[in-house]
């Protein structure tokens, strides 16, 4: 098996599955304060608050 390293800047978001059984994926990330994420196919965004809790909203900032 050839290891592959991807960063958030390399590819659009993906869903990883372990199928077939001989395929394995190890996902490594962190919980950087102020981190944020948007979902390209959905009107959804999230930002991490200083206390570590995620706050979800629409992409324009409106509450859900």
Mean pLDDT: 75
In total, how many beta strands?
3
Distance between termini? 42 Å
> Count of helical segments?
0
Region (Disordered): 1-44
Q: Could you explain the architecture of this structure?
A:
- By secondary structure, the chain is mainly beta.
- It is built from no helices and three strands.
- It is elongated and about 45 Å long.
- The model has no long low-confidence stretch (mean pLDDT 75).
Keywords:
64 residues
Summarize the structure.
The chain has 64 residues and is an all-beta fold. It has strands spanning 36-39, 44-48, 54-57.
Chain-wise SSE layout:
Elements: E1 36-39, E2 44-48, E3 54-57
Antiparallel strand pairs: 1-2, 2-3
